[in-house]
Amino acid sequence: MRALVAYFSATGTTARAARRVAEAVGADLFEIAPETPYTAADLNWNDKNSRSSREMADEKCRPAVAGDSPDMSRYDTVFVGFPIWWYVEPRIIDTFLEAHDLSGKTVVPFATSGGSGLGKAPQRMATLAAGATVTKGRLINGNPGADELRAWAKRM
């Protein structure tokens, strides 16, 4: 399996999970970094006027991604990591999925969350990653061991 772990992390939690997944499965690592970094005020989900609240309220919102994209032709499997926002993936993940040809690839969502599951993220991601097989994914909270992550990756 030639694999990439692509992730968005607003606070560092998902970045730690992404590094563990990449190490466990021997994958390359790519940060989906926003062109305009998020501030603490941007991430205040209790404020309906915060950046994250406005983005998530707009189904068509696609925040810009900074830097160069990975060469997706090199990968068979793309693990996509993100924090759960409003029971789905953040809009920047939508930007990433729509920007790449993922046809014929397996896309494996994984998320971090303070209290909810993946919600409708895998279903939404399947509509955005045309031609890809999107698995049901999983939450990666806490500190799962490398053996557990390898076993999970093989099932995907």
Textual characterization of the structure:
With 156 residues, the protein is of the alpha/beta class. Helices cover 30% and strands 17% of the residues. The protein is built from 5 helices and 6 strands; from the N terminus they run βαβαβαβαββα. The protein has helices at residues 13-25, 51-57, 91-99, 121-128, 146-155, and strands at residues 3-7, 28-31, 77-83, 106-112, 133-134, 138-139. Strands 1, 2, 3, 4, 5 and 6 form a 6-stranded parallel β-sheet that branches. Helix 1 (13-25) links the parallel strand 1 and strand 2 (28-31). Helix 1 (13-25) crosses helix 5. It is globular, with a radius of gyration of 15 Å.
Q: Tell me the span between the first and last alpha carbons.
A: 11 Å
Mean pLDDT: 94
The total beta strand count reads 6
Q: How would you classify the helix and strand content by structural class?
A: alpha/beta
Low-confidence stretches: none
**Percentage beta strand:** 15-25%
* Oligomerization status of the protein chains: single chain
Query: What is the alpha-carbon Rg in Å?
Result: 15 Å
**Overall 3D form:** globular
User: Percentage of helical residues?
Assistant: 25-40%
DSSP helical segment count: 5
Largest sheet: 6 strands, parallel
Give me the strand/helix succession.
EHEHEHEHEEH
